[in-house]
Amino acid sequence: MKICIVLSTRPEIIKLAPLIKILKKNKNNFFLINTNQHYINLMSKVFLDFFNIPKPKYNINASTKNHGTFFSKTINKIEKILFKEKPDYLVVQGDTNTALAGCLAATMFNRKYIKSNKKTRIVHIESGL
Q: Which of 10, 11, 36, 88 shows a CA-CA span of 20 to 30 A to 45?
C-alpha cells in the first residue's frame, strides 16, 4: 500500500501530524507533497520540524497571487506526481485550496490514466479528527 499526503497550511500540518507519526512508526510506504500554499517556506518548515515530519518528497511552488494560477499549476503538478508514483490513497485535510487541488488532481488522474479497477482513493480528514 502506497499513500500520498498532500499538505501545506499550518492547520493541515498540525492535524495530519498524528497520522504521519503512525505511518512512520509502522514503516508504511508514504510520501508528502507540499503545495507551498503559504509561499513562505518558513511557515511550513517551522511546523514540519516541530512535529518531526519528514521533508516532503515533492514541493510545488505555485503562485498564490491568484486562485486560477495556483489551481492550474498545482493540479497539473500533483497529477504528474500521481502518474509517476501511482499511490493507492491520497490524503488531504480540511477545506483549503491545497486539499481541493489534491482531490481534483486525483479525480483527473483516475479518469485519465487508470483503466482498471485500481484507482487512487481519496481520504479526506476533517477537523476534530
A: 88
> What is the residue type of 127?
S
- Say what the alpha-carbon torsion angle 34, 20, 105, 37 is, to the nearest 10 degrees: -30
Given this model, what pLDDT does residue 126 score?
Answer: 87
Q: What is the mean pLDDT of each run of 10 residues along the chain (129 residues)?
A: 95 94 97 86 82 94 80 95 95 94 95 76 83
Instruction: Return the pLDDT at 23.
Output: 98
pLDDT attached to residue 129: 55
Closest to 58 (Cα-Cα) out of 121, 7, 96, 2: 7
Place of cell 521533508: 55
- CB environment 67-87: b (16+ within 10 A), e (fewer): eeebbebbbebbbebbeebeb
* CA atoms of 124 and 113, how far apart (whole Å): 22
Residue from 4, 128, 121 nearest 58 by CA: 4
